[in-house]
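Because discrete structure vocabularies remain unfamiliar, it helps to consider an illustrative case, giving the amino acid sequence and backbone structure tokens:
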Amino acid sequence: MQDRRTIWMAAALLVAIGVGLRTWNLTGDPMWLDEAYSAYAAGHGFGFLWRVTPLYESHPPFYYTLLHLWVLPFGDGLASLRLFGWMFGIATLPALWRVAASVGRWIGWEANQRRRLQLAVVAFGSLSLALVEMTREIRPYPLMILLYTVEIGLILRLARRTEQSRPIFGRSLVAYLLLLEILVWLHNLGALYGLALTLALALALPLRRLARRDWITLVVGHAIVGLLYLPCLLILRSQAAVWTQHTWLQFSLDWGLIDHLMTLYGVPGWIGLGSLVLAGVAIATLHRAAHGIRLTAMLLILTLLPPLAAILLSLTVAPVFVTRIMTATAVPAILWLGIGASATGRYRMVGIGAAVLIGTSMLTADVQARMGPPMQDWYRTVDWLAAHFNRGDQIFAYPNEGKLPLHYALRDRGLDYPIRAIPRDVPALEDRHGTHPTGTRGVSSLPQPELHAIAEEPATKAVPTIWLLRLGAKTYDPGDMFLKELHRDRYIVRAWEDGPIDIIGLRLRTLGRPALVTPQRPSR
């Protein structure tokens, strides 16, 4: 009884730490570009989301629809938008606790060892850099992580159900299929997770003992999931031509890739090798446990298949591997770590030592991430802009997607500067002459004649100072074509660079004399 109470107290402390890390400065960082896309889509109605979004996005519109339903009652402020993912990130912790208990029961561990497993899994889940960081994202990743966790628990429940010779059809199967459908609809690579879960279910079930009706139920259920997923495939197919020819992603097989994988499965750097030690202890422990071989195969599939498939696609089709997209695989990896940390016998001290090393390193990485700069520091950019912006000035956002995060950062600062998206607001689908360097039809790099025409418009010439925002200048304005067109009858007054954010102020020559200006970079 005393041991159980200690476990609960320790679990409560660890969850409190996990909640604190996920909440720390939750609204302190501005939205970066991808998050701004989410906020932008969520601000539109269902017609736009389901008819227009698939014309320029390769992602299914389901996540944006959920976010839209959230902002209807709670608003689209930064706090509200971040809380949407924060809820799912926090809910993942008790889900991990329950899944760890299911794992312990399935492999025949006694109550005390099961509770140690639960404690270890919650500890790693609370401290995992991948899970902590994704909880803060206004993207589908925190929901994907939660669903992946719950699905693993449902697979284990279905396995126990069939082992008891009970019909497989029931609430657990319905829930599994429903969540599987939602998961594949959340992201354009959601199908990789769907495939991993389907194979994991096949490994968990005693297929030779399944009755004919159970086979029919499983086949029909998964067939329905597949049929309902077809619209997603059509969206991917419609965007594939642009995405495979042009994309901002780069991919190479190097040591950096190992670092990204170690971020998912523990911590980056050489300390992350401790995760391999815990995984080895887990495999040795499971080898002697009931269903140990099947659980080992399941966790290998759930941990490795999505990133390996993404790597294969990146090598053969187009770069698609992004660490944050793969963060749901941190969940089965955490189960590996938990099993290794709670091992008994001759591996016990090795497991405990490696667990302490990994856990301490995770906490250090979490604190460093919170103390570091945001993905894109639009607040610093807005503060700099506010110090120089005058009445009548205008911001030209080229490419047009740069307007999105700048608009939300200005809003958060209580400012409302006029921004003109070039050529038009996202999605500029009517543009037929530009190219799409980053793989989305809604964002274009324009040819020189069109840029010249924009620079010569009376509306352009009437602006005293144009603040040219180029988000990825080398990609969308190669050779500084647009800058040179605007520079013909203007001189540069100010310049700002912060990562991909590039702003140049161009004032009419008739309003003053030119001055030499060097780009100003923020000090860190």
Remarks:
- The chain has a mean pLDDT of 91.
- The longest strand covers residues 490-498.
- Strands lie at 394-397, 419-421, 465-471, 490-498, 501-508.
